[in-house]
Write a sequence for this structure.
């Protein structure tokens, strides 16, 4: 008998923002993150752009799509560099195909840690992106997917970098053992 781990299909993740808003990761996105976890020594980092929606008249954000690694991205055990032109095309297509409602929200990538923490290179990269990108709000979001948990940060132009607190803890190791 072979056991296979899979994420429960109806789980997403909810984070609370400092301003009282919520940052919600849809179940399909959480499943994408789970597929890219670095559970073995030979798994390379994965990542991409975060796309979603700002909910009108609230401080709430919904992440409903993320891009996955593709052609031109550079990946290794401890690094991920996305190909800029491909990522921009994904953002542009999402904006147009959603009738201008789905926007660029930030970046995600994996780490080979159970509970991930950003490296100094990650934080430097996030600052560079926040100061150089064109985006729809005063904040961008950054997600790191670990082996058993995912964590999220917000970078705002006025307050800098802050961690988002989960409610409840978004463990992505809630697995269902299935026999093959």
């Amino acid at each position: 008998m072979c056991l296979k781990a899979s994420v429960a299909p109806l789980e997403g993740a909810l984070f609370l923002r400092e301003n009282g808003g919520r940052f919600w990761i849809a179940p399909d996105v959480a499943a994408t993150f789970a597929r890219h976890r670095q559970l073995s020594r030979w798994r390379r980092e994965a990542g991409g752009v975060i796309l979603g929606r700002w909910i009108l008249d609230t401080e709430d954000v919904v992440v409903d799509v993320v891009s996955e690694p593709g052609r031109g991205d550079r990946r290794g055990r401890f690094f991920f560099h996305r190909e800029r032109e491909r990522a921009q095309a994904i953002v542009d297509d999402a904006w147009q195909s959603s009738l201008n409602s789905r926007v660029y929200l930030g970046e995600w990538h994996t780490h080979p840690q159970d509970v991930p923490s950003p490296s100094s290179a990650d934080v430097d990269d996030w600052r560079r992106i926040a100061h150089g990108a064109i985006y729809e709000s005063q904040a961008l979001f950054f997600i790191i997917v670990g082996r058993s948990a995912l964590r999220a940060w917000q970078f705002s132009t006025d307050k800098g970098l802050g961690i988002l607190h989960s409610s409840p803890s978004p463990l992505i190791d809630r697995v269902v053992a299935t026999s093959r």
Summary: Residues 3-179 form a domain with the Cytidine Deaminase; domain 2 fold (CATH 3.40.140.10). Residues 57 and 156 are 19 Å apart (CA to CA).
